[in-house]
Amino acid sequence: MADTFDDVLDRFRRATKGFEHHLRAVPPGGWGAPTPCPEWDVRQLANHMTRGNLNYVGLVRGATGAEFLAQRDADALGDDPVTAFTASAEACADAFAGSGALDRVVDYPMGKLTGRRALAVRTADSVVHTWDLARARGRRHARRGPRRLGRRRLRRHLRRARGRPVLRGPAGRRAPGVTPGPAAHAVRPRPPLTGQPSRSASSVRA
Description:
206 residues; Four Helix Bundle (Hemerythrin (Met), subunit A); two-stranded antiparallel sheet; 2 strands; disordered C terminus
């Protein structure tokens, strides 16, 4: 199946701007507030997003899936979470905007992907976690899930990013034609592609 994500870089930038918008509104005492992700408070969610952006930069530059997973929980926020996140988003966009990056095959932990498809996965993750952060802030409009893409559009986005069917359940199940990376066994069972604990954003699972 041919890649169809010609505007994926623009979509990624818009998705990260949405997360940044909510991140800037977190009050000084709000970093420990719970989120819809049972394992993460607001700071941990922000770190997941920031570290994720940096890990995708690593993939474009030749990092392995095992290296991606080894860094997944490392602190990336320091003393200034907002600046750290915005810098990571810019670095990720710049990396994928590089010559040939979208067509390059990267060693995504769950299987080899083109850069274009890997960035589509990252974009979907950003949309879902923007909803998580909005819910953590108590935003009423977030109760119905990621409305900008809509449930059906987000599901299609996820399916196309990985090929059909979308991965479900424990690591190791995969779409036809997707070669699992050597680090695939190390991925904990989570909903497909988002990296979330099982109760987060369940309404948009494919």
